[in-house]
Design goal:
8 strands, globular, Peptide Deformylase, binds nickel (II) ion
């Protein structure tokens, strides 16, 4: 099992735009494995490929308590948004901080799955927040960009999965 190093907020790679994946090669499969291992090892609920230094449009998410509902999205794109929700977010690339972000309540996502088949998902609530956070990463956007000035708060180490 390979757990990769997570890049931190001041690393310029996190500000670059990720490139679309053309096929699920062995390298991409390995990347997805490494991402899932790294997310779970760090008790996170999501991870984008550029957080471990790979500029590809791949995200993994698992918001389940039991940590057994891995979702993988390749080339994810939000095609429709509805409503808004205000929630506290944290990020594995910005340790020991959290802040409130205004996100869409409901989103429609198009992507490819691990077999490179079309995947469509309509979701709301916290999963919608996690997906918006991760998809932002792929465009070089951190949640801290969306926290109103002066509202980013220092926290203790998180005890429950929360970092996305
Ligand atoms: Ni994040």
């Amino acid at each position: 099992m390979v757990v990769r190093k997570i890049l931190l907020y001041d690393n310029p790679i996190l500000r670059k735009k990720c490139k679309p994946v053309n096929a699920v090669s062995n390298e991409v499969k390995k990347l997805i494995n490494d991402m899932a291992n790294t997310m779970y090892a760090n008790n996170g609920v999501g991870l984008a490929a550029n957080q471990i230094g790979e500029l590809l449009k791949v995200i993994v998410v698992d918001i389940s308590e039991e940590r057994n509902e891995l979702l993988v999205f390749i080339n994810p794109k939000i095609t429709k948004k509805e409503g808004s929700q205000l929630g506290v977010e944290a990020c594995l690339s910005v340790p020991k901080f959290e802040g409130e972000v205004d996100r869409s309540q409901k989103i429609w996502v198009k992507a490819k799955n691990i077999f490179f088949e079309d995947l469509e998902m309509e979701t709301d609530g916290y999963l919608a927040v996690a997906l918006q956070h991760e998809i932002d990463h792929l465009s070089g956007i951190l949640y801290t960009d969306k926290v109103p000035k002066g509202k980013l708060k220092a926290t203790e180490d998180h005890k429950s999965p929360k970092d996305i």
